[in-house]
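dumping this here before i forget
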Amino acid sequence: MVTLILLTGLSVLSLNMFLPSLSNMAAEFQTDYSLVSLSIAGYLAITAVLQVIMGPLSDRFGRRPVLLVGLVIFTLASLVCALTTSIWVFLAFRVLQGAVIAGWALSLAVIRDMAPPQEAASLIGYVSMAMAVAPMLGPMLGGALDEVFGWRASFVVFTGFGVAALGLCWVDLGETNKTPSETFAKQFQTYPELLRSRRYWGYALCMAFSTGSFYVFLAGAPLVAVAMLGLSPMVLGFYMGTITAGFGLGSFLSGRYAKQYPLTTMMIVGRIVACAGLLGGLVLVLAGYVNVMSLFGATVFVGLGNGLTMPSCSVGAMSVRPKLAGSAAGLAGALTVGAGAVLTSIAGAILTQANGAYTLLGMMLFSSLTALVAAFYVLWIDRREGFERPANPV
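structure:
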């Protein structure tokens, strides 16, 4: 479990640790902020593609080898990002860093391999709580590294973390996929059962748009905080970490209560919490109260709601067809980061210094409301067709 926590933490840390440096990176590369921000959207896009590939590969060949290859690619890409002087080379290898997403998607599959659904939801809640420390501290660390050593220091640290994670995974992580597919042909024959499941798509869409509000926050918060609030990179890093403080608390509550309540209950409660917080923040901003509390206070509730929702969504998606847990996790993860890539691109295109605060909170609220609709859709299916208890691992 410690290894899974660290692998998951690294996969999230690689997304947000360098975000406080985006403005300084644009200045050094002598390019627009919008181009540098593609390091977020491009990263999310490639992780969407990779998860679609990695999930089936892990169902066919096992979780361990796919994780090891992903860590090797991440480590080498991080080193190139730290050394290059070309924005295009940087963006290309920043995209390759996305291979570390195996640490997140396949860690979920490993947990589902080892435990029945509600216990797995509880375990994922505790893993999410522990790994929330990484993205919470990541922007703070990245901001401090930028101020002391420059933005390249973050990618040097990524390289070191990649080497350490590869060694730990090699020594500690055993294979948990005890019934790998005999051939890809036989594996793909079972895919229609997964893809035709309305429950699966309800879980997956709830995951995608719950996380989508977080990705919008990552893309838009630096612009709003610097342009409208005048925050330094280090202070910005601190406040950006507060959303994951809420996520850590929500994940703890999920670990505590997921065994006691149905998956849909945890999902809906989490979505209501996120929407309520964002609605309150948006009302304050529209009333003219644009400050740290109205912006970051509202987004803490997004983290709290996501911590309550995501473990149950993940387990629900993987439990529809347990033999395809890796594929289900990969496809749901791909949909999640694909939606995130689209939302961050839209945020980068429409956010300005004039409309930044209310547009940011409005986009986050739209995404959270869409996730709430998806959660109610799963509940509606359960009540219409009868509750389907997900099967135990096979």
